[in-house]
């Protein structure tokens, strides 16, 4: 599924490449949405550049979320959705994280609003954000075991379920 | 969950536990307040009491089955939740929704916005001691719920907006019902304003309370009336139009003061704009025309066709047993809900069940700025600040 790159995708990719050639690992376009895959080490610097560069002006972090592609590896796909209010453009920054060491730089120093978004991802996916000021569980109790939104966590939770429940489980959940 | 002991208290200050069952939190929200006399030094919100794991449940349902779950997140804006989810899936599928359905969607969502603002205004006023406003607001909200019942058969959990269109054609007599509401509403908004806008107690409780600068609000990812009251005219209906909003003529009310009073004025002005949008949609909706996209295999076939055509019967069977499979990919769609930017992220792996559904809920993200609003303020202002962000805990915790 590849579509021709939009005008905005080219602007963002060029701007980032001219700043640091390593910052853009891949650019893809799907249904008019631009995705820029960023290497894990460069996430915070790239986000900071996206926010500050006069040509980009992505000043608003609207959403951050994770997708678990278990059993593929690297399994975690972190998506940051940025909006430029002055330019009226959107872009998605994506970082791939492996299941062994799901750790990435926190974006709270760039956008304070990333605080609860990252806490939610930590709570439900178990991804750690280094440099986060207050990385605690937010929705679940502090003594909760496991990370429910991971694909290998059963929908019914870890408890005894009647055998009939097994029939309706997805093949991807062991 | 945060325990009282973990919140820091010094010899001068005391820690007060507010909630989770506090009437002003409009749900179950707990805030740990560190107080120096009557001044709030530090506030730590504690959430999760209504967490129901909707995003996890979505992964075990077919794309159409998820719609009923979206109703239950933000229970003051079920139609908006339906809409954002359906827009995301439609984008994934590349479906084009007929214009008539788009206009009906706009009309319903704007009615919903008025009803949500009415609940906000009524409860916010009751929190601050203006009892009678609540009764007036709920009188008009009842009229809107009656319209929803007429259209959908349900007052609150409507599930009316479906992937590719709408569940039902508008019923007979809908024009009279909406027309009556449109004639009544502007004068009713005037009524609320006579009760509050120049009320000295109201101004005393809200003016200058809960200030946040525009830069801070953007940095904290705030959206909706809270951001617009800080002078940033960011409204998804204008900036990233969806469902044919670009054809509608309306203003985005903004204020500069960025206090509770400014947020009140923005929301009241928004109600008036909603009436304008509903009027335009009302005129645009034709009496005849399709309300569902032409996409066999995704949209359930009509009843008559199912009984006369074999293909329709097969599609019907397949849709309700297996569902449909969008191509692999991800989409992220944002709309303007009454509370701010409501987003939906859907990832498909090519199977009939979504790989991931995520909601960017405006209440959750706006609530994050609450400590910033109340630290340094009086404890009585905490109530005003919680009310003015307009949170729905069902959506915060999901």
Task: Sum up the overall morphology of chain B in one term.
Answer: globular
CATH architecture of chain A: 2-Layer Sandwich
Report the mean per-residue pLDDT of chain A as an integer: 83
Number of domains in the coordinates of chain A? Answer: 1
Mean pLDDT of chain B: 88
The computed structural class of chain B is mainly alpha
The major sheet of chain B is characterized as: 3 strands, antiparallel
Order of helices and strands of chain A: HEEHEEEEHEH
Rounded radius of gyration of chain B (Å): 22 Å
Report the total helices of chain B: 17
In CATH, the topology of chain A is named: Beta Polymerase, domain 2
Question: Which fold name is given in CATH as the topology of the largest domain in chain B?
Answer: Cytochrome-c3 Hydrogenase, chain B
Distance between the termini of chain A: 29 Å
- The computed structural class of chain A is alpha/beta
Tell me which CATH architecture of the largest domain in chain B applies here.
Answer: Orthogonal Bundle
Biggest sheet strand line-up of chain B: 1-2-3
Count of individual helical segments of chain A: 4
Beta-strand content of chain B: 5-15%
* Assembly status: heterodimer
């Amino acid at each position: 599924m590849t579509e021709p790159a939009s005008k905005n995708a080219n602007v963002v990719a060029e701007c980032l490449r001219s700043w640091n050639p390593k910052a853009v690992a891949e650019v893809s376009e799907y249904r008019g949405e631009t995705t820029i895959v960023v290497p894990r080490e460069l996430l915070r610097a790239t986000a900071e550049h996206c926010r500050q560069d006069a040509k980009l002006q992505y000043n608003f972090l609207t959403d951050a979320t994770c997708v678990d592609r278990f059993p593929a590896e690297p399994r975690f796909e972190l998506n940051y959705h940025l909006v430029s209010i002055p330019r009226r453009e959107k872009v998605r920054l994506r970082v791939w994280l492996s299941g062994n060491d799901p750790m990435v730089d926190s974006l709270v120093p760039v956008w304070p609003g990333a605080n609860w978004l990252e806490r939610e991802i930590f709570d439900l996916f178990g991804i750690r954000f280094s440099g986060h000021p207050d990385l605690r569980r937010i929705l679940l109790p502090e003594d909760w075991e496991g990370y429910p939104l991971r694909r290998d966590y059963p929908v019914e939770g870890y408890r005894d379920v009647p055998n009939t429940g097994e029939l309706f489980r997805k093949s991807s959940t062991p | 969950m945060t325990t009282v002991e973990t919140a820091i208290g010094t010899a001068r200050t005391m820690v007060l536990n507010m909630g989770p069952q506090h009437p002003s939190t409009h749900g179950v929200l707990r805030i740990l307040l560190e107080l120096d006399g009557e001044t709030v030094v530090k506030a730590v919100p504690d959430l999760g009491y209504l967490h129901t794991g909707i995003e996890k449940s979505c992964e075990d349902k077919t794309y159409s089955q998820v719609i009923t779950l979206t109703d239950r997140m933000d229970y003051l804006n079920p139609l908006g939740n339906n809409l954002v989810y359906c827009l995301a899936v439609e984008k994934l599928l590349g479906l084009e929704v007929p214009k008539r359905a788009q206009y009906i969607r706009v009309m319903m969502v704007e009615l919903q916005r008025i009803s949500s603002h009415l609940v906000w205004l009524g409860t916010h006023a009751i929190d601050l001691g203006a009892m009678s406003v609540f009764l007036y607001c709920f009188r008009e909200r009842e009229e809107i719920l009656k319209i929803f019942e007429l259209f959908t058969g349900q007052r609150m959990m409507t599930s009316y907006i479906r992937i590719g269109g709408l569940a039902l054609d508008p019923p007979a007599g809908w024009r009279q019902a909406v027309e009556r509401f449109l004639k009544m509403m502007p004068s009713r908004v005037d009524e609320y304003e006579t009760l509050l806008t120049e009320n000295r107690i109201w101004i005393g409780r809200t003016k200058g309370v809960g200030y946040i600068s525009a830069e801070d609000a953007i940095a904290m990812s705030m959206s909706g009336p809270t951001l617009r009251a800080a002078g940033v005219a960011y409204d998804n209906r204008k900036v990233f139009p969806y469902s044919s909003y670009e054809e509608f003529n309306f203003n985005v009310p903004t204020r500069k003061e960025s206090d509770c009073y400014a947020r009140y004025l923005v929301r009241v002005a928004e109600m008036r704009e909603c009436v304008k949008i509903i009027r335009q949609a009302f005129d645009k909706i034709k009496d005849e025309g399709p309300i569902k996209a032409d996409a066999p295999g995704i949209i359930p076939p009509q009843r008559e066709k199912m009984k006369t055509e074999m293909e329709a019967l097969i599609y019907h069977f397949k849709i309700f047993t297996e569902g449909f499979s969008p191509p692999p990919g991800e989409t992220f769609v944002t709309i303007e809900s009454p509370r701010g930017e409501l987003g939906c992220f859907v990832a498909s792996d090519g199977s009939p069940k979504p790989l991931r559904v995520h909601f960017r809920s405006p209440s959750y993200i706006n609530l994050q700025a609450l400590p910033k609003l109340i630290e340094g303020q009086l404890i009585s202002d905490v109530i005003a600040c919680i009310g003015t962000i307009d949170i729905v805990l069902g959506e915060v915790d999901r």
